[in-house]
């Protein structure tokens, strides 16, 4: 029964249902609510969409002649951990190539839009293979969850602005045991409106062979059918054209929108096998005019979007070991690990995938039931069709009804054995809804990193990034005692796999047990690092901190929208690039190796270059060799750049010497110290000498010759020169005009910089010992700030004024020490003192009052 309120809401706009505190108090307790709110279903036809025929709702068409009403869809919904997973089959009565819907909407009984999701134009690998539409509505609000429980929530599929179907989401008990589904469509006829349809929820038993069918339908009643209407339900083989069973049901009160009936029958084992292979169809027809009023459809696998997965680990259970598992435990090869995932296609075939470490030849797959009544004859073995790079894929065309029953019940295990190594890995197949991370192309294998070689812990992780740039993940572990341990989950990225590569690691969460499902928001910097670098998914032991499992994230795809530098109107912002820096750079990458900030090293291919890392950028300088006064000079090895004095009486040993700044120097070596970022200090000479016990480094300072000019006039020919020199006198025109001398040549920019010149904010170069006023582009010259170039270094200072100058300025204006710069500073000081006195006077006045 629907509950209507007098308050109306605008069409197509989200509206939350108001709740009273008394209503919340009467809610079902969470554990029981989770149990009762598990499975829901919906039928979407032209007749079910009539509920929303209102003028103020523009999303739903108001006529059954619309082409969308020739489409029939059925949906399955699973409520799990505050999330509503949805799955849809849909078909067209005219042609079977029905396009995918563009949008899905969730609406309440008044037509208010609660949730809207855009569906991708091209589905995933799973959705395209099974012809399904899959997704999830995450974190449903509490008030919307009450609508779901009260069956007052509706779903709509939209193919365009005027092309939509909708239906009520209802609780159906038969969905708990559903194994097969059928989507029933009417024949296209000008005599009858093709707006009917139905769905069949089918479950079977292998012993004894039984089929149970729950039907939800409409559109098979004549206009004058009002009560106790007989209908024919027929199960038949569409290829051979014979009827398996035919039942007559009677509908007491036919409904224009939704009718529900059930049939049950015994069948043969061969007929049950044909049902699993999609060979049969089911139909509902009127007894009076079956040629006009009937709906039919093929039986396929159940509508729910799901995959079955299993982390594969070496078997360590002592009970029930078969011959292969015994050989595996005695095998000299290290234990393998892997993962497997499979899904059931519409025709009943199984598409399977398995990734095993160190798998080189095609293995043998074995499906074994583990539930009650299992028999050795129920097992099924097969070999994969394709094996490449440790990944085995294929399709299993025939699966026995018993194994399919065990698979849906979660009582089927998969073991993979190798004939060459004798190793066996196995795992229990568990069902997972396909949405979010599980809807990606393939999971990532969590491989063992460290620990005992006999450890059987393994795992698999599904990863995906949605259009909101959030990372979703699902992790499942397997191994002895894995359910009793505690773990930590980390996200790690690095620019590349290289020695000393910088690593950015983020702690996601801690968890217990073997299963984890979650999501995290990613920053633009993290997204760029994940797109341009190498990412890992890492699991550690919570108690010891040891890395247990690790997986690379090569298969992770990042939406283009998450990597955009520009805004929606394609106008780049002022700080667009600076706000998307990939990381805070702390290392330098040079010749295939990462170096820490501040470190120095010798160029690996050129021994006459020394390099250093500064602010994430490497710089290399040419080695300057000290001048040697000895007659015999020799290079000890090809890796040396500078020669060493050689004395025939003392044998030089290249293995004994000194270490300075991470560099090794043999005994007898002489060098200038390398001091990044300024380069080599030519004023100091270092030497490695050997004493009685060890080798030591000795320092000596270069002695500069006396200058023939003043210190201020002396200059350095090169900015790294140790000793200053007097400038050469400028050459000009002689006073005697009859004698003409050569005019001075203008220095180039390179010569000015080599002589200690400077560049400042793109201007210059300025010669050594020159001074100028600071300049700001938006203001102009600031005479109060003076800059000076001295030996390649620029020093800028603001002119400072002493208080005595300010005091003199208040009494006389003729003081030469007080200029415009000091006048401004004195005025600022007077205003500051005046404000302090005024503040103190106000405080004293309040105290007196």
From TrEMBL:
CHRD domain ranges (all copies): 36-174, 176-304, 322-434
GO BP term (any one): negative regulation of BMP signaling pathway
Annotated signal peptide: none
Record-linked Gene3D superfamilies: 6.20.200.20
A Pfam family matched in the record: VWC
GO molecular function, one term: BMP binding
GO cellular component: extracellular space
Record-given protein name: Dorsal-ventral patterning protein Sog
Matches recorded under InterPro entries: Chordin-like_regulators, CHRD, VWF_dom
Location of the VWFC domain: 586-646
SUPFAM superfamilies reported for this sequence: FnI-like domain (SSF57603)
Domain of life from the UniProt record: Eukaryota
């Amino acid at each position: 029964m629907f509950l209507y309120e007098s308050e109306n809401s605008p069409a197509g706009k989200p509206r939350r249902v108001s709740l009273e505190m008394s209503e919340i108090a009467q809610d079902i307790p969470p554990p029981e609510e989770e149990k009762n709110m598990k499975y829901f279903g919906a039928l979407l036809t032209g007749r079910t969409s009539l509920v929303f025929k209102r003028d103020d709702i523009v999303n739903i068409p108001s006529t059954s002649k619309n082409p969308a009403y020739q489409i029939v869809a059925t949906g399955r919904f699973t409520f799990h951990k505050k999330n509503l997973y949805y799955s849809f089959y849909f078909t067209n009565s005219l042609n079977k190539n029905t396009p995918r819907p563009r949008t899905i909407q969730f609406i309440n009984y008044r037509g208010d839009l609660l949730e809207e999701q855009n569906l991708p134009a091209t589905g995933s690998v799973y959705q395209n293979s099974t012809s399904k539409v899959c997704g999830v509505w995450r974190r449903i609000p509490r008030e919307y969850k009450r609508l779901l429980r009260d069956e007052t929530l509706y779903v709509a599929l939209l193919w365009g602005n005027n092309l939509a179907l909708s239906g009520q989401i209802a609780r159906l008990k038969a969905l708990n045991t559903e194994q097969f589904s059928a989507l029933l469509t009417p024949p296209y006829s000008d005599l009858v409106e093709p707006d009917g349809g139905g769905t069949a929820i089918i479950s079977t038993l292998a012993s004894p062979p039984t089929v149970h069918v729950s039907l939800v339908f409409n559109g098979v009643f004549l206009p004058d059918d009002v009560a106790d209407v007989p209908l024919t339900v027929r199960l038949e083989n569409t290829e051979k054209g014979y009827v398996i069973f035919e039942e007559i049901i009677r509908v007491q009160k036919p409904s224009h929108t939704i009718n529900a009936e059930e049939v049950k029958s015994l069948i043969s084992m061969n007929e049950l096998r044909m049902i699993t292979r999609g060979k049969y169809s089911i139909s509902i027809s009127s007894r009076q005019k079956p040629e006009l009023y009937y709906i039919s459809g093929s039986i396929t696998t159940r509508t729910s979007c799901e995959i079955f997965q299993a982390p594969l680990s070496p078997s360590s259970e002592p009970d029930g070991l078969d011959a292969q598992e015994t050989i595996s435990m005695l095998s000299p090869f290290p234990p393998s690990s892997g993962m497997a995932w499979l899904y059931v296609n519409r025709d009943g075939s199984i598409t399977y995938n398995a990734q095993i470490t160190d798998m080189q030849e095609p293995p043998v797959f074995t499906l074994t039931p583990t539930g009650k009544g299992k028999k050795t004859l129920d097992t099924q073995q097969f070999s994969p069709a394709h094996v490449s790079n440790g990944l085995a894929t294929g399709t299993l065309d025939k699966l026995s009804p018993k194994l399919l029953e065990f698979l849906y019940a979660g009582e089927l295990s998969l073991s993979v054995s190798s004939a060459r190594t004798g190793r066996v890995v196995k795992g229990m197949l568990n069902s997972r809804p396909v949405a979010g991370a599980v809807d990606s192309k393939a999971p990532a294998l969590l491989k063992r990193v460290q620990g005992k070689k006999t450890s059987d812990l393994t795992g698999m992780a599904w990863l995906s990034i949605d259009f909101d740039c959030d990372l979703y993940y699902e992790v499942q572990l397997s191994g002895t005692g894995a359910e009793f341990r505690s773990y930590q989950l980390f996200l790690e990225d690095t620019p590349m796999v290289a020695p000393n590569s910088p690593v950015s690691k983020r702690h996601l969460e801690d968890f217990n047990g073997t299963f984890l499902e979650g999501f995290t928001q990613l920053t633009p910097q993290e997204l760029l690092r994940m797109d341009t670098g190498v990412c890992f998914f890492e699991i550690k032991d919570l108690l010891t901190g040891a890395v247990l499992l690790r997986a690379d994230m090569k298969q992770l795809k990042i939406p283009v929208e998450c990597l955009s530098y520009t805004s929606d109107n394609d106008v780049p912002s002022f700080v667009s690039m600076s706000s998307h820096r990939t990381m805070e750079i702390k290392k330098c990458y040079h010749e295939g190796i990462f170096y820490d900030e501040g470190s120095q090293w010798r160029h690996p291919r050129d021994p006459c270059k020394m390099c250093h890392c500064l602010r994430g950028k490497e710089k290399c300088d040419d080695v300057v060799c000290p001048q040697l006064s000895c007659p015999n000079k020799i290079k000890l090895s090809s890796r040396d750049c500078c020669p060493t004095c050689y004395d025939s009486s003392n044998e030089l040993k290249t293995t004994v010497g000194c270490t300075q700044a991470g560099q090794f120097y043999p005994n007898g070596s002489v060098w200038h110290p390398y001091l990044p970022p300024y380069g080599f200090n030519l004023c100091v000479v270092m030497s490695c000498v050997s004493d009685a016990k060890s080798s030591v480094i000795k320092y000596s300072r270069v002695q500069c010759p006396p200058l023939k000019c003043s210190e201020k006039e002396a200059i350095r020919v090169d900015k790294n020169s140790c000793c200053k020199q007097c400038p050469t006198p400028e050459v000009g025109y002689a006073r005697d005009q009859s004698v003409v001398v050569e005019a001075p040549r203008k220095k180039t920019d390179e010569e000015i910089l080599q002589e200690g010149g400077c560049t400042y904010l793109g201007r210059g170069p300025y010669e050594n010992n020159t001074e100028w006023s600071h300049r700001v582009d938006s203001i102009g010259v600031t005479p109060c700030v003076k800059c000076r170039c001295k030996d390649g270094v620029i020093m800028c200072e603001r002119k400072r004024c002493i208080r005595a100058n300010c005091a003199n300025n208040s009494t006389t204006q003729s003081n030469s020490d007080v200029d415009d710069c000091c006048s401004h500073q004195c005025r600022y000081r007077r205003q500051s003192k005046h404000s302090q006195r005024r503040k103190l006077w106000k405080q004293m006045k309040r105290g007196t009052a």
